[in-house]
């Protein structure tokens, strides 16, 4: 089987797996599940991991230049290692299906909407992840969804009030990742704004 054919076959299953992970993980963390409910949520999360792992290994096996494929598909590996990144795949589907219909293919508009959606999803996943890691830790101050959401917002925007902070190693790793994402997003927003200003100046300049 050719790699292009495989990717076409698994496109929808991967999107469904990303959505299933988002729902199951949200249910488990926000609901603070125990017993049978927690086992069901964990089983769904594990199943989605298997789907992404099989897809990664299959693409690697079908690639004609495996070294090049590995270098150009780092996100696929990260989606296997870091579960919180899996729902970001849904943004790719939105970009391909929804943006082209709603903004007429305008590049800057597509980038802006895509960027905004990425920030929202990153903040949400960071909130779930840090709450999952911190809630039961000794001395933790992020113990509710509201605490986690406030922490994620001030972290991604680099405000850093310091009223909430992670105390576990896992939580601090999440914080570092979110900070780096926030810095990168700020750079993209600044570049998009500068591009828009230059375009407006060019349009108003007399011939």
Walk me through what this model shows.
The relative contact order is 0.08. The chain is built from eight helices and no strands. The model has no long low-confidence stretch (mean pLDDT 83). It is 78% helix and 0% strand. It folds into two domains: 1-87; 103-207, Helix Hairpins (Orthogonal Bundle), CATH 1.10.287. α1 packs antiparallel against α2 (35-62), α1 packs across α6 (107-134) and α5 runs antiparallel to α6. It is an all-alpha fold and 207 residues long.
| CATH level 1 class label of the largest domain | Mainly Alpha
Oligomer: single chain
Q: What is the typical, i.e. mean, pLDDT?
A: 83
* Shape by Cα distribution: flat
Number of helices: 8
Beta-strand segment tally: 0
Biggest sheet, in brief?
Answer: none
* CATH hierarchy: architecture of the largest domain: Orthogonal Bundle
Q: What is the gyration radius calculated from CA atoms?
A: 20 Å
What class would the helix/strand composition place it in? mainly alpha
Query: Helical amount among residues, as a percent range?
Result: over 70%
Order of helices and strands: HHHHHHHH
Distance between the termini: 57 Å
CATH topology of the largest domain: Helix Hairpins
Transmembrane segments: 12-30, 36-62, 111-131, 173-198
Membrane topology: Multi-pass membrane protein
GO biological process, one term: action potential
Main location: membrane
